[in-house]
Design brief:
binds guanosine-5'-diphosphate, 4 strands, four-stranded antiparallel β-sheet, Alpha-Beta Plaits
Length: 140
């Protein structure tokens, strides 16, 4: 399995609820290497830029308000098959439908306040890592 990088976000709901430590522990226990990490409080405009692909969706205004509602933690994760592996560990978008043991099942409280984000493909991962870590040399 080739080594990949993906972008993870501990979203504002989970940081506010002080679940960030637990979630990062789950990331490490699953075998990811943390290659980059920042605490960010997005402006509404930055959240809109990050989620630009969703701008036509009915929940875009609500989602970008939520994502700019408080600090979030953005991480560059590395592992074999990292993109799929992180999405599996997160679980389904709607915590009510997420598998038992998944992070969204444990920490998410609604389809919007679902605790974490993960890139959904190689192109998305490249865009999203560049959005938060422009030009950085990832730690080794
Ligand atoms: P993801 O890839 O699993 O994060 O899901 P999507 O790319 O479809 O949606 C992006 C984010 O928008 C999700 O993680 C949720 O925070 C939010 N979201 C998705 N669907 C809905 C919805 O139907 N209503 C609301 N309010 N938010 C949603």
């Amino acid at each position: 399995m080739p080594t990949e990088r993906t972008l993870a976000i501990v979203k504002p709901d989970a940081v506010r609820a002080r679940h960030a430590g637990h979630i990062i522990q789950r990331i490490e226990e699953a075998g990811f290497q943390i290659r980059a990490m920042r605490l960010v409080h997005l402006t509404k405009r930055e959240a809109e830029g990050f989620y630009a692909v969703h701008r036509e969706r009915p929940f875009f205004a609500s989602l970008t308000s939520f994502m700019s509602s408080g600090p979030a933690i953005v991480l560059g994760l590395e592992a074999p098959d990292a993109i799929r592996k992180w999405r599996t560990l997160m679980g389904a978008t709607d915590p009510a439908k997420a598998d038992p043991g998944s992070i969204r099942k444990e920490f998410g409280t609604s389809i919007e306040n679902n605790a974490t984000h993960g890139s959904d493909g190689a192109d998305t991962a490249a865009f999203e890592l560049g959005y938060f870590f422009p030009g950085i040399q990832f730690a080794r």
